Amino acid sequence: MQENINNIKESLVRDLESVNKPQDIVDLKAKYVGKSGCITELTKNMRDLSIEEKKTVGMLVNEVKNYANDLISKKEEEINNAILNEKLNKESIDITLPSKKIKRGSLHPMTRMVEEFEDLFVSMGFTVFEGPELESDENCFQKLNIPKGHPARDAQDTFYLKDEVENFLLRSQTSTAQVRAMEANEEKGPIRIVCPGKVYRRDEDATHSHQFMQIEGLVIDKNISMADLKGTLEVMMKRILGEKTQVRFRPSFFPFTEPSVEVDVTCFKCGGKGCSLCKQTGWIEVLGAGMVHPDVLTMSGYDPKVYQGFAFGTGIDRMAMFKYNIPDIRTIYGNDIRFIEQFDRKDED
Questions:
Q1: 38, 68, 155, 288: which sits with the fewest CB atoms below 10 Å from its CB?
Q2: Higher pLDDT residue, 205 or 53?
Q3: What's the confidence (pLDDT) of residue 220?
Q4: For residues 158 and 177, what is the distance between their CA atoms, to the nearest angstrom?
Q5: Parallel, antiparallel, or unpaired: how do β-strands 211-221 and 247-254 relate?
């Protein structure tokens, strides 16, 4: 047995001297350590040996097998390195050639507007609060002082689940997140949040979509007044639409605020002088706002004699249309890459 092992080792060394390509390594492995290799053949008659002899033969075979694998692996590594070096020497890269231009992605205008709003309000001490798009009728209407049968529901006609019409629907306003935030505040202390997100209504034309984006703000604290609301909205509009923007309040009605106002801003196209965009008035309506109705505070666990608050909401899509001069809201959701790419240039301007 030992003589056979010595012969195998000598034969392996001789064969390795003539190996110079990967296929030679494959053949060498098959010859020595393969299933039919000469080292494997040493164990062919082990079943006829005694237990002590099997231990001795097994140890010798494993030793020569490891020896062969080590030599073959080293030779294989030498060949692979030689091939790689030869390839590197033959091939070269001209670093003076212009590289291929990598196409850069572009943020969607809705993403731009949401990030701009969030950055602004976070810097003012607000917290971003998001709620689910599938909501209960109670949160979407009843706890916002819009009971069943109230005519204000007609303007927010939305999509109900087929088998649960009275209970669940796709939210028609992000004010539902405000309800959740007030109820989640177990200490019933101050709140300062903004709630961006998708909402759904049965609308479809150049300036309305069945799905659109809203952002609403809510502040609840002691001694909150309309002056706080006006100051907040002035900062918001100047940051979003430009420092020369002026804000105007007009009395209005919303079931969840009292008093309620419609908010106009000076036309950013003509600067308030009057043009076709603002219909020669110099003003453009952009959002609704008001002081939180005492009934809304009460339904969410707040004492309206101690706490007051203001709320406001605007369509992010509409603000994007104003800021970027987008004529049709449907193009925002058209998935045309040419439409999205142009906003890089607009923001740079």
A1: 155
A2: 53
A3: 96
A4: 17
A5: unpaired
> What φ, ψ does residue 158 adopt, rounded to 5°?
-125, -165
Q: Tally the domains of the chain.
A: 2
pLDDT of 311 > 80? The answer is yes
Q: Which residues pair with 135 in a beta bridge?
A: 169
* Cβ pair 42, 4 in contact under 8 A: yes
Helix or strand holding residue 333 (H, E): none
C-alpha count within 13 angstroms, C-beta hemisphere, residue 13: 7
What residue has token string 């106002």? 261
Helix, strand or coil, per DSSP, at residue 139: helix
CB 41 within 8 A of CB 64: no
CA dihedral 155, 161, 162, 163 (to 10 degrees): -130
DSSP 195: E
Vertex 38: Cα angle to 37 and 40 (nearest 5): 65
Q: DSSP class of residue 100?
A: P
For 273-308, what is each residue's pLDDT tens digit?
A: 888 777 888 898 889 999 999 999 999 999 999 999
Classify residue 49 by burial, with Cβ atoms within 10 Å: 0-12, 13-18, 19+: middle
Tokens of 34: 């393969």
Answer yes or no: do 77 and 133 share one domain: no
Instruction: Say if residue 155 is in the same domain as residue 296.
Output: yes
Q: What is the pLDDT of residue 261?
A: 95
pLDDT attached to residue 208: 64
Q: Tokens in use for 210?
A: 């069945």
Both 70 and 115 in one domain: the answer is no
The residue assigned the tokens 């509009």 is: 237
